[in-house]
Write a structure and sequence with these properties.
5 helices, 76% helix, mainly alpha, 0% strand, elongated
């Protein structure tokens, strides 16, 4: 029985990337959680320290990782904040957009963790 990705994820994109190779998808999802979660903690720290340029650089670094786990819309929203960072001197200027994005990123980690459990149980 083929694995079905959650409807909150870009199923078409994920199927084009992974086909029926659930094991490979699982590896990518595990890497996403390990690397992107760690980088996101640094982004939040930069935000608190008002280090807009550092935050922008790290957001740019993690932006493509969202697509690899089917969060293509989140990748696009991250690009919007990156563009805002380019013209902002401090984090107050890009509020509340940052808070909204950060909440969505936090929520996405839970979604990907749940998806990973489903994959492990599938194999």
């Amino acid at each position: 029985m083929p694995f079905a990705f959650d409807t909150k994820l870009d199923q078409t994109f994920l199927e084009s990337l992974y086909g029926d190779d659930v094991q490979y998808a699982q590896e990518v999802f595990e890497g996403f959680l390990a690397d992107t979660k760690n980088e996101f903690e640094k982004i939040k720290s930069d935000y608190r320290q008002n280090a807009v340029k550092n935050m922008r650089q790290k957001l740019h670094k993690i932006k493509p990782t969202f697509s690899f786990v089917g969060l293509t819309a989140l990748s696009e929203k991250t690009e919007t904040i990156i563009a805002a960072c380019d013209v902002s001197a401090n984090t107050r200027e890009i509020e509340p957009a940052c808070s909204v994005l950060f909440k969505e990123i936090e929520d996405s980690f839970l979604l990907i963790e749940t998806e990973l459990i489903k994959m492990r149980n599938h194999t």
